[in-house]
């Protein structure tokens, strides 16, 4: 890391001044900048976040997306996070991650602004965010930078599949990808698995909450492998440097290799401190990413269904169907098919409406009825469900 800091072309004070002045530039930028600006006039920077807090780094991405003028200056932001699970903008955390397992641990859940699937981060994972104007958004360009860096530095061959994941050994995924496209700006971000704790990853992403019906985006599970399992010489810091240099030596639009001569014309590497002093307004963005209403309440509405067996009976007619309707993370309605002699359970269930949903809430309903779960059933027959 120290080598990267010494090779920085922009000094800390100069960068801070540049960042502070940049918001005003965006609003005067021309959406046709791609046509008006020659490729040689576009400069590049590699920024490295000094924070490892997931909410802070997501806020830093959002700050650049909202405020920066990329018409003459493209940015690659590199960052790492403390252990966390990051879900896509349109996903349901209860179906994507093992909340009962991660709640007692130091693993936090975050929701990003881009779409796509769920990923696990820890210090063995390098995150990359490529920023350009919307007109120059090119996901394949960014992925080619990564694959070229892997081959140039370690002779490691990787491919980009139809889903635009980076694959090694024809099978294993080392990088997932997502994007936020707006006007005038856009960004594409991805992960690189270097030395991730795969046991923690598997536990955090293990699907344990069944019986949920929703139209939320569902992650596609894929076999993964750490890069250091393919080549033991690869480390996070070496990969960070390799990708950064490859980015700086590549032409901004055509990706032609400009070598060291092009590197000398760029703005280089620079550590950035995502604080209010450097990025005015970022504190509010950090708070927004931490809100329960964003992480959980942003989930598309969903229905939880459980099939229960009444106590002290094996009669199939004593099976009960529990249905919980959830919207914006809040329980809207709790319904159950009830034999006439079990009406005493209705008030217990009704009192839970309006509460934030959690797996503990479902378990509390089951325990209150004295029933046991006999199967999960995601098909809800509305004609045989009584509203309570």
TrEMBL record:
One of its GO terms (biological process) is protein lipoylation. Belongs to the LplA family. Pfam families: LplA-B_cat (PF21948). InterPro entries: aa-tRNA-synth_II/BPL/LPL, BPL_LPL_catalytic, LipoylTrfase_LipoateP_Ligase. It comes from the Eukaryota. This is Lipoyltransferase 1, mitochondrial-like. It comes from Ceratosolen solmsi marchali. Pathway: Protein modification; protein lipoylation via exogenous pathway; protein N(6)-(lipoyl)lysine from lipoate: step 2/2. PROSITE patterns: BPL_LPL_CATALYTIC (PS51733). One of its GO terms (molecular function) is lipoyltransferase activity. Residues 70-255 form the BPL/LPL catalytic domain. Gene3D superfamilies: Bira Bifunctional Protein, Domain 2 (3.30.930.10), CO dehydrogenase flavoprotein, C-terminal domain (3.30.390.50). One of its GO terms (cellular component) is mitochondrion.
